[in-house]
Amino acid sequence: MRAKEEYVKKTSLADGTYSVGVSMEPGTYRTNSTNSRCYWAIYVSGTNYDDIDQNDAGSVGVLTVTVGEGRDFRTQSCGTWSKVG
Fold this sequence. Notes:
Blueprint: E1 12-13, E2 16-19, E3 27-33, E4 39-44, E5 52-57, E6 61-67, E7 71-76, E8 81-83
Antiparallel strand pairs: 1-8, 2-7, 3-6, 3-8, 4-5, 4-7
């Protein structure tokens, strides 16, 4: 059995792919993107990133997403997302 620390769910997200309930908490996250290469996506978990629920590319400014159970979240070049709700 793994140490409890390995299961700590993140509430501040940098570039990467996260699974809700495993590597991130469910909820609403916000970032202030200054990069026109920003891409984020919410996928249905277990679909090998083939089933996109929502996504956006190229937006700048304050971005908000809500990610629930049974989803994966991928972000690239959007800055740090912080949990706000």
